[in-house]
Automatic annotation (TrEMBL):
PANTHER family: GRPE PROTEIN (PTHR21237), GRPE PROTEIN HOMOLOG, MITOCHONDRIAL (PTHR21237:SF23). Keywords: Chaperone, Cytoplasm, Stress response. Residues 34-47 have a biased composition (Acidic residues). GO terms for molecular function: adenyl-nucleotide exchange factor activity; protein homodimerization activity; protein-folding chaperone binding; unfolded protein binding. GO terms for cellular component: cytoplasm. InterPro entries: GrpE (IPR000740), GrpE_CC (IPR013805), GrpE_head (IPR009012). The keyword Chaperone applies. Transmembrane segments: none annotated. The lineage of its organism: unclassified sequences, metagenomes, ecological metagenomes. This is Heat shock protein GrpE. Its main location: cytoplasm. It is found in: Cytoplasm. Gene3D superfamilies: 3.90.20.20, Head domain of nucleotide exchange factor GrpE. One of its GO terms (biological process) is protein folding.
């Protein structure tokens, strides 16, 4: 019996003594080496070409640009439609802004026509009708925040009064409004029309006549009575 046979027998007896089988790892080592050799080409094949990666990125960016362009055109169309609606509303407002006040003016016109179409009107009835129409007109102005500018007896104010003439007066202070030719009106503090007025000014002082003594001192003959 040779030396190798003795070694194999010793291994068998050792395995039998421990109740285990001896695993031959020589074949496994060879298979692991084969896997390592074949795995390297697979990793190389999985890597993409840089140009292909760049093309993929460009395609993604192109898709994003197309989507953004679509959103831009959509918002642009909405903006144009909004401008058209706003322009239309502005035109309608300018055309019909006075609709409410015109309706009330039509009613005043109706009352005027009734007054003139009355048969055999008396002076008293005509006056009463005109007064009613005037009250109706003043009510309309109040609704529109139109106010009458007070002028008579007030101090002249160039912002709200227009002077037509001046009149000497001993009864009024200078620059006081003494007459009013036409009333002034203002809308929410803005002047629609100034009051056209006459204001007072100080009377011109007359020079006193020279006495006879003054005339004689100046070499002038005294006045004969």
């Amino acid at each position: 019996m040779g030396k190798n046979d003795t070694t194999e027998q010793e291994q068998d007896s050792f395995a039998n003594a421990n109740g285990e089988d001896i695993v031959d790892i020589s074949g496994d080592s060879a298979s692991l080496n084969a896997e390592d050799e074949t795995s390297e080409p697979v990793a190389e094949e999985s890597e993409k070409d840089p140009m292909e990666l760049l093309q993929d990125e460009l395609k993604t960016k192109d898709d994003e640009i197309i989507e953004l362009k679509h959103e831009f055109l959509l918002h642009k169309a909405e903006t144009e439609n909004f401008k058209k609606r706003l322009r239309k509303e502005k035109e309608d407002f300018s055309q019909y802004a006075n609709e409410k006040i015109l309706k009330e003016l039509i009613e005043i016109n109706d009352n005027l026509e009734r007054a003139f179409s009355a048969t055999n009107p008396t002076v008293a009835s005509m006056k009463e009708g005109v007064e009613m129409i005037l009250k109706q007109f003043h009510s309309l102005m109040e609704k529109q925040n139109v106010e009458i500018i007070e002028a008579l007896g007030k101090k002249f104010d160039p912002a709200i009064h227009e002077v037509l003439s001046q009149m000497e007066s001993d009864e009024h202070e200078e620059n006081t409004v003494t007459q009013e030719f036409s009333k002034g009106y203002q809308l929410n503090g803005r002047i629609l029309r100034p009051s056209k007025v006459v204001i007072a000014k100080a009377p011109t002082k007359q020079k006193p006549e020279d006495s006879d003594e003054d005339k004689s001192s100046q070499g002038e003959p005294p006045s004969s009575e």
